[in-house]
């Protein structure tokens, strides 16, 4: 997904990552589509994934970026609604970081 700026990079291919990208675009917050140094990296996973988050931490540290890791607690219960709610919370955190 092409973004509207270069403030945030969202890592992840699951439902939560997609919902965070949609919510960022809906709120008009900057989203960067490529892996380059950005102020904030958001690592999303539909399940708690320590290995994936460790790699995201390594990439963010190399770039000097802050990182926010987000996962769904129980994606089996109403996954779409859970993704939308969690994405809104994640983007609230992102907005607080960017301001």
Describe the structure.
47% of the residues lie in helices and 16% in strands. The chain has 99 residues and is of the alpha/beta class. It has one domain (8-98). Helix 1 packs across helix 3. The longest helix is centred in the C-terminal third of the chain and has 20 residues, at 79-98. Mean pLDDT is 78; it is low at 1-5.
Number of self-contained structural domains? 1
Low-confidence stretches: 1-5
Q: What's the average pLDDT?
A: 78
Helix content: 40-55%
For the largest sheet, list the strands in their spatial order. Answer: 1-2-3
| Count of distinct strands | 3
SSE topology string? EHEHEH
Q: Pairing-aware structural class of the strands and helices?
A: alpha/beta
The number of helical runs is 3
Largest sheet: 3 strands, parallel
Layout of SSEs?
Layout (H helix, E strand, L loop, with lengths): L7 E4 L3 H13 L12 E6 L4 H14 L2 E6 L7 H20 L1
Parallel strand pairs: 1-2, 2-3
Helix pairs in contact: 1-3
Describe this structure in a few short sentences:
This protein has helices at 15-27, 50-63, 79-98, and strands at residues 8-11, 40-45, 66-71. By secondary structure, the protein is of the alpha/beta class.
